[in-house]
Design brief:
The chain is an alpha+beta fold and 698 residues long. 48% of the residues lie in helices and 18% in strands. It is elongated, with a radius of gyration of 32 Å.
Length: 698
């Protein structure tokens, strides 16, 4: 079984890594994952021993980090930094007074020790406890060793100042991370806390989880719709921006479907619930975004592994500086000890361990506000390397709204339409719906016998005790029938009865108005190859490809053939990413197989959400260049933080070894760089449609 727990008081990414490693070593744990950004622990283990494992997990966490707790309650408490701030202020005032005292009536060591213990006592306490637990190489140990070492060589003011600076930096860092978490939570604030249900004629306020399928809920103007359902009474305009990123409202009336998370703008609605909360659109969206942190990008995993080795290596170098260099250079021991202490202060990897995952999650959170749901930072990183984009045609590049526009022969119009409508009456396919719409009469199901859908070809049905075939050219050829050439730029549906070919219907679709600009923008972003894979006719595919300037198209494909071609292209694609964009229903196998699968127009479609890696909550191709741009922008921020943090640390390490850097500079290279990196990472949260129109070079 798997359960998710809320973590409280976990402000250190390095500590999160230690806790995660420790839990994964507990016997019986199949997988433990800590999401530092969302403050969550995902624990998977055998159900029979889960209570014992949970208790062992709590003991381990308390042993490693006594202040950290886990709970099943998902509360949103304000972070309380008042105690730390008060200690910093008191210590800073005492330190200032001591600095300006004309002469000391007590030893300087004791005077400086007071503000030092006030501001750094908790650091010393945690460092000592961690040493006894075998957890040596963390920031508490490094700061404690550096400042105690400064006291040992008589650098009292420097020791106090460094601890003050460190605590101020940690406070700012914690505040910045907290702000980022709140910003992400605000972006995802689409879940209503309560809902009004009508029971026995009485309005009752309950949580969405307490409402059953079939019950009727009341949604007033200004309230969020809590659950998916159908409008029974009323009409209104819905703000769908939380789901789709679109600012234009959507009008709804009686019998229209509505989705949880939308905001009712101006009318009173009575809605019959169609799905329980756990299966509703809003719950799935929240689950997707909140669990995105568990699917880490290669860069994140590299930084995590790097941090485990980086700190011990720097500590060893610091020891060598203090022990070996005095002998080699015949210099005072205190000189090299001071330089080694600077090494220790610089070695904390917090700037990377915090800012890199925060950058990824910021990009994911910012994208979600635009109606682009990215299931993990690994998919965000893969999308940033997109080279080949493969499109399904119908419903992706075209409207998917089909109309019967012609008949051949025209004299058989009524008969062709009647047989096609009867055969297709049990299907929800857009082609079938267009035929039924053109027929416009009630279906007499008494005339229908056995109906068999033939994947990628059409339908074989018994109508009035005759075997009727309705489908594409392949269907006719499979049953040995000869049909006319498909010369029109649309979908041709052929009809045959008892082995006699009767004629065909022409069904046409139109290109989405946003598609031409979307394809042009993608090419401007450096996408090297665009392809259409479709089950439609060659003529229809060619017309769309030429209009949109798509590089290549392959038509007349069955679902398994489409998958085979996508796999072949992936093998030929080298290191670049192949992205497939489909409607999320019949394209599910390809969406789940390619490097990155993007489901178009997936609002409320279960198959799309399950099969794809990225979900566009509306059907606009304009979101595609925006998604690529967000991915590349996020990766640019990640690279900036990595290069900035490592460069500053490398420079300060070198300057410290040569004697050109003091403790103040060393602390800046630690907490100062961390704060700046976190602030830079927060830029990934800021995603505006206008800013996304700026083209980024590949």
């Amino acid at each position: 079984m798997q359960k998710v727990y809320k973590i409280k008081n976990l402000d250190c990414a390095h500590c999160a890594g230690k806790i995660e490693d420790g839990i994964n070593k507990i016997a019986g744990v199949s997988r433990a994952q800590i999401d530092f950004i969302n403050q969550k622990l995902t624990l998977s283990a055998d159900e029979a021993v889960f209570p014992e494992i949970l208790e062992e997990t709590r003991r381990l966490i308390h042993a490693l980090e006594p202040d950290v707790t886990i709970t099943e309650e998902h509360t949103h408490e304000e972070e309380n930094h008042r105690g730390t701030l008060l200690r910093i202020i008191v210590a800073a005032l005492l330190f200032t007074v001591i600095l300006f005292l004309p002469e000391f009536c007590v030893p300087a060591f004791l005077l400086y020790l007071v503000p030092y213990l006030i501001v750094g006592g908790d650091i010393l306490y945690r460092a000592v406890k961690n040493i006894f637990r075998g957890q040596v190489f963390d920031e508490n140990f490094l700061m404690a060793l550096a400042t105690v070492g400064a006291f040992a060589i008589g650098e009292y003011p420097e020791a106090v100042a460094v601890m003050l600076f460190y605590q101020v930096g940690e406070l700012f860092q914690s505040y910045a991370v907290g702000r980022s978490r709140k910003s992400i939570a605000k972006l995802l604030n689409i879940r209503p806390e309560t809902a009004t249900v009508i029971r026995d004629g009485v309005e009752i306020e309950v949580t969405p989880e307490e409402i059953a399928v079939g019950e009727v809920i009341l949604v007033r103007p200004g309230e969020k719709i809590p659950l998916d359902g159908v409008v029974l009474e009323g009409n209104s305009s819905l703000d769908t921006s939380a789901l789709t990123g679109e600012s234009l409202p959507r009008s709804v009336e009686i019998n229209d479907e509505v989705l949880g998370g939308c905001v009712n703008q101006n009318g009173l609605l009575k809605i019959q619930v169609k799905k329980p909360y756990a299966e509703s659109t809003v719950a799935k969206i929240l689950e997707l975004v909140e669990t995105a942190g568990s699917k880490k990008a290669k860069t994140e995993n590299f930084i995590t592994r790097f941090a485990r080795y980086y700190t011990p290596v720097v500590v060893i170098l610091a020891v060598l500086l203090a022990a070996v260099m005095p002998i080699l250079t015949n210099s005072p021991f205190t000189l090299w000890l001071n330089r080694s202490l600077i090494f220790l202060v610089v070695s904390c990897p917090c700037a990377l361990v915090i800012s890199v995952p925060l950058s990824f999650f910021g990009g994911i959170g910012g994208a979600s506000r635009q109606g682009i749901l990215i299931k993990g930072s690994n998919f965000l990183e893969a999308l940033s390397k997109a080279e080949t984009l493969v499109f399904d045609k119908t419903g992706t590049l075209t409207e998917g709204v089909f109309r019967v526009t012609d008949y051949s022969p025209a004299a058989e119009k009524e008969r062709l339409l009647e047989l096609a409508a009867l055969a297709e009456s049990g299907s929800n396919h857009p082609i079938a719906r267009s035929v039924l719409e053109a027929y416009g009469k009630e279906i007499d199901r008494g005339r229908l016998g056995d109906v068999q859908e033939l994947a990628g070809m059409g339908v074989k049905a018994v109508i009035d005790e005759k075997t009727v075939l309705v489908g594409n050219r392949k269907l006719m050829e499979t049953f040995g029938l000869t049909c006319m050439e498909d010369t029109d730029t649309g979908t041709v549906v052929h009809v045959a009865s008892d082995g006699i070919y009767l004629g065909s219907l022409l069904i046409t679709d139109s290109i989405k108005p946003e598609a031409p600009k979307a394809i042009a923008d993608l090419k401007d972003l450096g996408i090297t190859k665009t392809v259409i894979l479709t089950g439609d006719t060659k003529e229809a595919a060619k017309a769309v490809a030429e209009t949109l300037k798509i590089d290549k198209f392959v038509a007349g494909l069955l679902p398994d053939e489409k998958l085979t071609l996508a796999e072949e292209m992936m093998n030929q694609n080298g290191k670049g990413t192949l992205v497939f964009i489909g409607d999320g229903m019949n394209d599910a196998p390809v969406l789940s197989r390619v490097d990155v699968g993007i489901a178009m127009g997936a609002m409320g479609q279960d198959a799309a959400i399950e099969a794809s890696d990225i979900v566009l909550m509306d059907d606009s191709p304009a979101k595609l260049p925006m998604a690529v741009t967000i991915a590349r922008r996020t990766m640019a921020i990640v690279r900036q933080n990595i290069v900035f943090a490592l460069s500053v640390k490398a420079i300060v390490l070198l300057l410290g070894a040569l004697g050109f850097a003091n403790m103040w500079i060393a602390v800046f290279a630690d907490v100062g760089v961390s704060v700046l990196a976190v602030l830079n990472a927060m830029r990934a949260l800021s995603v505006h449609e206008k800013s996304m129109t700026v083209k980024l070079e590949k």
